[in-house]
Amino acid sequence: MKRRILLEPLVSLLALSAEIAHAQSPAPAAEQDVEIEVESAPATSAPEPAPVTRDEVTALRAELTALQQRLSASEAERAAQSARDEATRSEAQRAEEEQERRSLLDRATKLGVSVSGYLQTQYGRSELSQDELLQGGTPLNQNRFSVRRGRVRLKGRWKYVRADFEIDASTTRGPTASVRRASVGAVLPNADETQPPLLVLSAGLTEIPLGLELQQGQDEILFLERTQGSLALFSGPVDTGVRLDGAYGPFRLQLAVMNGTPIDDRAGGPSALDATSAPDFVGRVGVDTQATEAFHVSGGVSFLTGKGFHPGSDATKSVLQWDDSNADGAINAGELVAVAGRGALPSATFDRWAVGADLAFDLKTSLGTSRLYGELMLATNLDRALFVADPIAAGDDIRELSWYVAVIQDLTEWGFVGLRYDVYDPNSDLVDSRRGQSIPSDASLRTWAPIAGARYPGYGRITFEYDYIKDKLARDVRGVPTDVANNQWTVRVQGEF
Question: Which CATH number fits domain 122-309+348-496: 3.30.470.20, 3.40.50.2000, 2.40.160.10, 3.40.190.170?
Answer without folding.
Answer: 2.40.160.10
